[in-house]
Structures are given as structure tokens and as C-alpha cells.
Specification:
With about 575 residues, the chain is of the alpha/beta class. It is built from 17 helices and 21 strands.
Amino acid sequence: MCGPTVPAAVQPAPALAPVGENVLECKDLNYRYGGGATIATRDFSAPKLVDVNLTFEPGCRVLVAGANGAGKSTLLSIMGGQKMVPRDECKMFGKSVFHDGSLNELRMYCGDWWATDFFFNLSVAELIGEERLRSPRVQELIDIMQINTSWRINAISDGQRRRCQLLECLAEEKQVYILDEITTDLDLFAREGLLEFLRKESEEKGATIFYATHIFDYLAHWATHVVFFEDAKVMRSCRMEELQEFHDLVASGTKCPLYSLMREWVMHTYAGKMPEQIHTDEAMLAPSEVPVLESRDLTFAYNGGTPQLKNVTFSFGRGERILVVGANGAGKSTLLSILGGKRMIRRNLAKVMGADCFSDPTDDLVMYCGDWWRTKFFMNLTISQLLGEDVAATPRVVHLAEVLQIDMTWMINEVSDGQRRRCQLLEILSKPRPVYLMDEITSDLDLYAREGILSFLRAECEVRGATIFYCTHIFDHLEGWATQLLHMSKGEVVRQCPMSEVAEYAEAVASNDPTPLYSVIRKWIYSEYSGDGDAKPWRKIDDSLDGRVPNLGLAGPMMMMSG
């Protein structure tokens, strides 16, 4: 049963920005962490911002880019009033960003993600509130991000929780939006929809957007300005039309020109090149007489509900790099969890190297990366202690730690979510496997780490004969990487074939499309959504949950059906 159409609520008029004032003025802004009152916080860190000078007028859409640790998030958190700086070093509309609390009526900062433990079992509707929920603005955002208002905040996935937080942050109209990596959990359709929503806020209402990201799909024509950080300093700040290096790349026919330029600049931060690929004595995998990954007429449903997978059939061999694409809800993550042995299914529906995914032990065959660590799962171990001294000292781990920019003395329960994900990625890649199942592993990585991991995985295929099954919504770094394509829609396989047989991709390359892979997949996903007409499955309200039973069964046993 779909939710009722709600009448438009009268929105309170947004606070007006002072006339004639610049949105942002940074003058010789410097910042270091530390200087606190306790021993643990007294020592100063290395400089995180050095002599930052920036000025922006209302209506700008500013792309903030740079390597991990370059200073992007620090600047955005200062702009959001989260860190104390001298009054004159950073102002918004002529007011000190930290000392003047009235700026909170004008700005919205979204950079620190919620943790499950912060919530009682609230629904999204309860979180947003009845009055705001009735507004056309909130209803539009619900459809853009495909949020079900009956979701329980402490019982949904991290990606769903991030979308709910973004809805809560954007529910009220502001003059300035300060956004730090907000689209990592959105599919291509939702990501573009949200960026277009922000474009309208800018063009029609004069709002100013500051957006830090490592994902450059679709951004070349969205941003009006770019700011690039390197080693805590602003290396470049200009309007997009003044970014001559980008226009030269476009004119020369370079694929993914904005990504290519950002890659060049980020690599300069890391002394210009990736770490050398390792050459170890890890054994070459023996040829397999059976398919490495195989599914035959697999149908699967949670809790006896609507099938998430329907008659899924495919077969992939040794050494393949399989790119799995599709919109949110296509069944990609569910399929990955089944192949990883995380879901009970009947025998002979899905196999890895001839072994049944669930019934036969496959831990020595499969590396599954789909569920992210939580802090509370760990005693206060360093990543080196977690791996063990012998493993931590191997050339493989040393190389991966360099690529992922991991300090082996990090305490896992004290680092940020993004750093913890990198530690988890190091842990699961620390030992070689024949099969890697990977679900959105690069969303928290900068260009250096992302390319390093994808190069490492390519070498695993080409040198050792491993097979990679890779789901992602980020395509600006994948040109020429995949050997096979698996396109899924609404739980079904639309197409399985070598990338060389994808005619649409070959045509896009031949037509000099600057982003051929992104353009092709974008067309497929938009066609899928347009084919649904007005169907909005996320608006089906589930009233069966009374606040005591977590949604989606993530905290307890579930009934499942496969066949």
C-alpha cells in the first residue's frame, strides 16, 4: 500500500543573508589540531591548513578536491562552525564562523555521520517530524534518495542511514550548504538527482554549495568553481571556465577529463607516482575445470517477501574482473552476500569453484568485503596487532599499507570511519585468495588509494589468476579495467558478457564520448527508472514494526526463501 499524497505545508521563510556580503572570506587561515587542556589533546599536530585565502560570492557551486589529509574536511568543518579559529581568519556573511551562532540559521553542515548507538528505534517519519514531512521539499528529497519513511534508524544499513541523515540536513532551506562526501552511498540516479536539487537551490534561490568529494562523475558541468588542496595549502582556486588544464584535456579528447586532471594533481601530492607493484612468491592459481563463479536459476527473498533475486544465472571463469552494475535495489549486494556464503540457500543454486556457497566451507577460497566493521567489535588493537607480526611484515601488506595510507600503529577503535574501512580493506586483502567479492570498497578512498587498490586487484587477476566480482556506483576510474559485465535490474540478470561485446560502450568510445562507461550505464539506469513510470516502491509503508522489532532483520534471525 503506497503512502498517501500529503498536502503542502506552509514553509517558514528562510533567514535572509546580509545584503552585499561575501558568503565566505578566509584570510591567512591556519589550523592545527591539539592545544587542549588534557595530556591527550595538548600536543599540536602538523599543520592542517596553512595560509588559506578564499573569497566566494553567493550562488557559487564549489567543488573542493584534494588527496586524503590535504585539508578539505578541516576547512569545511571550520566553515560549519565545528572548530574554533580566530574571528578574523574565517567569516561567513561578515560573521565569525565559530563565534557567531546566528549563522546556524543560514548554513547547513553535513560532514560527521551518525552512529547507530545514538538512536532509540525512531522511524524516519518520527525523526523528520510531521510538519516538515508534509513539505514539498522533503517529499522531493524522499523520492530522490528513495527513502522509506517507516525505516527504523538504528536497524538499517549504514548507506540507508546516511541517506536519512542527508534528508534531515536538507529538510530546511538554507543559504549555504557545506557538504563533505555526501554521495558515496547513492547510486548514479540518486547522486545526479541530489546534485540537480542543489543546482536548483543555487540557480533559483541564490544558495551557495561547498562540496568536497573524491567522486567526479557528472561534476564537470555542475561546479562553477574548483578549490584544490595540497599539503594543507590551496594549490588552485578558480572558476571552472578559467581551469584551462581541464579545457585542454577536453579538447584533446582525454577520457574522463576532470578525473584525469584531479588524478594528475593528486599524484603530484604523492610524489608523482603510485607505489611499485609487488612481486612476491605467491603461487599462481591452478586452472579450474569448473566455473569459478556460477549461479543457476537462483531466486531469493527475505522473510518470505518479494524476491530480491529472480532466476539469476551466470558463469565466470578464472582471471576475470567482473563489473556488476545496476540501480539501488537491483539485488547486487544480496547476490554478493550469497556468493560470500552469508545467506542460506538450497544446494546447487550458487557455487564458487565447484563448492556450494553456503553448505560447503569456502573461507579459504573467497574474500568477501560487504559488511563494514563497527568500533565496538574491537578491543583497543592496532592494525598491526590485529594482523599479527608475521603477516604485517609481508611485502604484500607493506605495499597495501602504503597504497591505503595506513599507519600500522593506528588503534582501530580510535580512528575515523573512513580510516577504519581502509584498515578493514587491508586486513581482508592481506592474504591471497582465488576469489574476491567486493561491494563499494572505494567510496571512502581518494584517487591515489582507489587507483592503487584497483591496480593491485588487476595484478591479482593477471599475475595470479584470481577472479574479482566488483559492485560499484563510481565509474570515473574504471575505463578499461573490467573484462566482464554483469548488468542487473530488479533482481534479474539483464546482460552477462565480456566488455568487448558491449556494443553501446564501443559506440560511445568511437564517438569520442569523454566518459563512455559512465554515459552507457547512466543511460541504462535512467531507462530503468523511466520504465517504472510513477512506481515508487520506497513509498510502501510498513506499519508492522512497533519500535521493538528492528527493521530488515539486521539484529536477529530472518526467514529466507531460495529456489
